[in-house]
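Minutes, project check-in
Item: structure for the 339-residue chain
Input as provided by the requester:
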Amino acid sequence: MRSKARIIYNPTSGRENFKRFLPDILAVYEQAGYDTSAYSTTAFPLSAQKEAERCTKENFDLIIAVGGDGTINEVINGMASFEHRPKLAIIPAGTTNDYARALNIPRHQYVEAAKLIHKNQSVVMDIGHIRTGENQRYFINIGAAGSLTEVTYDVPANMKTIFGQLAYFVRGAELLPRIGNVPVRITYDGGVYEGNAALVLVALTNSVGGFEKIAPDKTLGDGKFTLIIVKTKNLVEILRLITMLMNDGKHINHPKVLYTKTSFVKAETIYDEQLLINIDGEYGGDAPAEFTMYQQHIDIVTDVDRMKLAIEAPDLTRIEKESEFIEQVQQLDEENIEP
């Protein structure tokens, strides 16, 4: 008996051109031994999640999630609560595709991403669970409190002139101080942090917001969140932290950064101030929030050989752009220019 697969795709992702490749992608999975069908998500809430739940209940062997991190999050939420879960394949078609970046899945190369099924390789990934009040949800990559969640590519022209191609990183840094005066209490394995925080990150992979070294020592499937608390709201200090992040992840040793591994996080405000929680790029409720770990919970198709090669042979174009950004920040320091 042949295995069953279901493609769940977001028709608005990938500049709406994914459907042109659908026949070729269906053929890839058919050649791999799957009877494969496709489902286009709709405007109704949690469309992808409900379809993933239906496929899990009906014992599908493989679900292929096509879209950005939000679509993948929904699919995971449709599968995660069941004892027996299908294998998951990912075809990245979003804007940032942090999760696919962490797994080194080809981005915006739809057929190439589908062909990973022929490698017969996978990784068993951790997922997180968050509870805020009466609401609860699973997540795949990041829980965040702070203005990193407001990062946008809509960057003012004068900032582009000063900072060049990576100006959107600076825009993100500029937004961080908005919550810098909110006193927080962050409880984690073996410790409690009380004080102001410009940013709190609870990460499952090493890739957040396009930064690939946010957790440079992360081991996938280790059963631990990477907890990062940025304790400064000074923009110049945050820019320097970004340059350290790009420079081999040296931000983890900065005195204004708390960096640790933990299987549990509770985030709350000390006073009655609102603290928004962002989950995989979407609003996930308000603090207090509790994050718990589900170790090695989802089996995801990838190319393990390609992941190892990516570590050994980093993206030289990206390194060149990051070096340019670091030089620009250093020049600002030398000229005492306040961004």
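Outcome recorded: The radius of gyration is 20 Å.
No further action items on this chain.
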